[in-house]
Write a structure and sequence with these properties.
The chain has ten helices and 15 strands. A hairpin with a 2-residue loop joins β7 and β8. The protein is globular and about 50 Å long.
């Protein structure tokens, strides 16, 4: 029997070492101390956590090894009641670590990943029944085609985030091909500008909307800028005074959008709920402030 999910999350975990309250940015030859430190599961863990708090049944295709970091994230996933049916366990290290240099409105990352082969898309998707496939970063090239094809054959809609990128539409035709295969593409402003080579976010939105039916550019404190069915929509962010850490805010935004889409809300309400989820998440480090459905409804 197939496992039934509303959202299938495809992507890796990270352990986030989050440094806050820095008086200056780290530089070569100097030692800088932060005033605060947090250690939390991150990556797609944050997305799954945010979905669960909203009452969405999410499956997560993720790899874990025999290392400390895998064990820590697994323990936390079990504590939060995550569905483990799509977890893959290995007898070697599968370390995914990020040091986060966090400031109130932005952050920088230093990351490391042990190599491991991705789950086989076709065999994984034959095990599940879902409505949405959520991709944690920009998938393109040969690695994405089996996954996208399997998702289409299974009747899933595809929501793709972007994350940090080192390519552009002009540098890779494969990126353009991938964007034509997804239903929703949701980069942040920096990623959208890098991807398109544009100087203005509105022009970046217009170019991306030629490839993907629904484009959402996350603007942080500026909310979100969207192109959908020939219309440009701006959805403002909520006002939050006690910002602790913005790490994971985009993941919580994505979760809020899919929650609202599953509920059948119109596009303006989906964006409002997504902004609420992203906004409330920054009140704790590492996306741990991801709100519950009840908290979202109070703001809506």
């Amino acid at each position: 029997m197939k496992s039934k999910f509303q959202v299938l999350v495809w992507g890796v975990y990270f352990c986030d070492l989050i440094f806050t309250g820095l008086e200056e940015f780290p530089r070569l030859g100097a030692e800088v101390y932060s005033q605060g430190f947090e250690f939390h599961p991150g990556g797609c863990f944050t997305t799954v956590l945010a979905l669960r708090r909203l009452g969405v049944h999410a499956g997560w295709a993720c790899d874990f090894g025999n290392d400390f970091f895998s064990g820590m994230v697994l323990d936390q996933a079990r504590l939060e009641g995550f569905d483990e049916s799509l977890f893959r366990h290995h007898d070697f290290p599968v370390r995914r670590i990020t040091s986060v240099i966090s400031y109130p409105h932005d952050r920088a990352f230093l990351s490391f990943m042990d190599p491991v082969d991705s789950p086989d898309a076709a065999s994984t998707l034959t095990q599940v029944q879902a409505k949405w496939l959520l991709l944690s970063h920009l998938y393109y090239g040969m690695e994405c085609l089996p996954l996208f094809q399997a998702a289409r054959e299974a009747g899933l809609k595809i929501f793709m985030d972007c994350q940090s990128i080192d390519t552009s539409l002009d540098e890779s035709a494969q990126v353009e091909s991938a964007l034509r295969l997804v239903d929703v593409f949701s980069p942040n402003e920096v990623e959208a500008l890098r991807l398109t080579g544009e100087k203005e976010v509105e022009k970046a939105l217009d170019r991306l909307s030629e490839l993907t039916p629904l484009v959402i550019i996350k603007l942080g404190r500026g909310g979100a800028l969207v192109h959908y069915e020939g219309k440009r929509i701006h959805s403002p962010a909520i006002s939050i005074s006690n910002i602790v850490d913005t790490t994971g805010a985009g993941d919580c935004f994505d979760a809020g959008y899919l929650y609202a889409a599953l509920k059948g809300y119109r596009i303006e309400d989906r964006l409002r709920i997504a902004n609420i989820c992203g906004g409330l998440s920054v009140q704790a480090a590492g996306g741990q402030g991801a709100p519950t459905e009840e908290q979202v409804m109070r703001w809506r």
